[in-house]
Description:
CATH topology of the largest domain: Rossmann fold
Structural class: alpha/beta
Order of helices and strands: EHEHEHEHEHEEEEHEHHEE
Number of domains: 2
Number of helices: 8
Largest sheet: 5 strands, parallel
Number of strands: 12
Distance between the termini: 24 Å
Shape: globular
Amino acid sequence: MNKPGILIIDDEAQIRKLLEITLQSNDYAVTQASSGKEGIIQAANHPPDMIILDLGLPDTDGHEVLKQLREWYTNPIIILSVQSSEEDIIKALDNGANDYLIKPFRTGELLARMRSALRSVITDEARVVITIGDLQIDLAQRTVKKKGETIKLTATEYTLLSLFARNEGKVLTHHYLLKEVWGPGFINQSQYLRVFLAQLRKKIENDPNRPEYLVTESGVGYRLVSKE
């Protein structure tokens, strides 16, 4: 079985070495680039299964590198950066990053986020039924079951949940969710999102006040995660 290939784009040699040792010991094949231009060339010549991208690059702004990559690269991209402002996080996620971790980071958390992002490559529309924990979302039949029992959702609730399911583990920003579900004219209507998320949690969570599936990323958005 081939090892998943990970491209690290980061100008800090110590970080690249730490990541290389950590990832190789967890059965990943690692390549490195120390600049945005080098990273884009490597990704184009030998497309990896995932890219770990720093935003503070010496030659090109990391946000611009992300946008250029997303013009053609469809596999997961995880941002690993010291830039911790809400604005930077939302901008990166809206530009197509699958996840965002702030340096210094915990290697265990990075590995978990990587596994989740790589699973999302399989969890796409080619899979008719998406299973996440006790939930089963049938995209063809537009039905949702929990522990085998059908859950009745409104059309909007189903659209919202199916959007999360197709992006399992990925943070979806408020802006993205409002635009995709309600349209561009509603991107500032955050109350719509709060109301429907609360309704959805009442139907799919064991305890809506302590959600295990639809997890809040404070100030940024939400993600659907498996309890496992």
